[in-house]
Write a structure and sequence with these properties.
One of its GO terms (molecular function) is oxidoreductase activity, acting on the CH-OH group of donors, NAD or NADP as acceptor. The chain is of the alpha/beta class. It has helices at about 10, 30-40, 60-65, 80-95, 120-145, 170-190, 210, 215-225, 235-245; strands at about 20, 45-50, 70-75, 100-105, 150-155, 195-200, 255-260. Helices cover about 40% and strands about 15% of the residues. Helix 4 (about 80-95) runs parallel beside helix 5.
């Protein structure tokens, strides 16, 4: 039986010696999570699109190095499922045969009225926001379950619970990702692998740039947030470290909502 460790509180959040594979850390929430995990002592494997030889994650990469952690970059086109299937084995090799934490943060958004939503956009959104997470989570489970240790964090959404407007594919993908998170937790918690989700509310990132640029929707949304403001990527540093650490050893299949109180309203 794997019990929560009897450690001083600061030690519960210490990630020294842990290896993390994280997608979507180029900017926004993913970048904030990667930096926070590095600050807690973890070594980070970043996934970058193979469109350039430049370090796309330059700011994140430099921040990780400044923390004294190691930063590894792997190229992968997440739209190519063959490349995605090879990503976890490549990350294992790059990280010395051990990955302790997987963070599925990569995501895309497409906005159209449902009556005119293109099938190609539907497929892209479902693949990146759901299928990629499934492939990587399954590979992580195959590695972690026999070792009886591991953490998997899926970045979900308020649309895990709500339908949204003009985003049917995103709502479908994030709703399914929440159910996938619970399904994996049901199977793997007994093997000391904790699978959980983080559900961002309205966050000031480029994914929401159209909402931020619409003065009417911006006012409507902001007025409904009890905290009185949109979130920022830094609001996810604490939740990411918590769900990656020994402090969350008995937290299984949870959807941790980080939304300034939106869902409570």
């Amino acid at each position: 039986m794997d019990l929560s460790p009897a450690l001083p509180a600061p030690a519960l959040f210490d990630l020294a010696g842990c290896n993390v594979l994280i997608t979507g850390a180029t900017r926004g929430i993913g970048a904030a999570c990667a930096l926070a995990l590095a600050e807690a002592g973890a070594n980070i494997c970043l996934v970058q699109r193979p469109t350039t030889d430049a370090v796309e994650n330059k700011e994140t990469y430099n921040g990780i190095i400044a923390c004294g952690a190691s930063a590894t970059i792997l190229h992968c086109n997440l739209e190519d499922m063959d490349q995605v299937r090879g990503l976890f084995p490549r990350a294992l090799e790059a990280m010395g045969g051990n990955i302790h934490i997987l963070v599925n943060c990569a995501g895309i958004q497409r906005r159209h009225p449902a009556v005119a939503f293109p099938e190609a956009d539907w497929d892209d959104v479902i693949n990146i926001n759901l299928k990629v997470c499934w492939i990587l989570a399954q590979a992580a489970g195959q590695h972690m379950v026999p070792l009886r240790r591991g953490k998997i964090i899926n970045i979900c959404s308020l649309l895990t619970f709500q339908g949204g407007i003009t985003v049917p594919a995103y709502a479908a993908a994030k709703g399914a990702l929440g159910q996938l998170t619970k399904a994996l937790s049901n199977e793997w918690s007994q093997h000391n692998v904790q699978v959980n989700g983080i559900c961002p509310g309205y966050i000031a990132t480029d994914m929401n740039e159209k909402l931020l640029a619409d003065p009417v929707r911006l006012r409507q949304i902001t007025e409904r947030i009890p905290a009185g403001r949109w979130g920022t990527p830094k609001d996810f540093a604490g939740p990411a470290v918590f769900l990656s650490s020994r402090a969350s050893q008995y937290v299984c299949g949870e959807m941790l909502v980080v939304d300034g109180g939106w869902m409570g309203r």
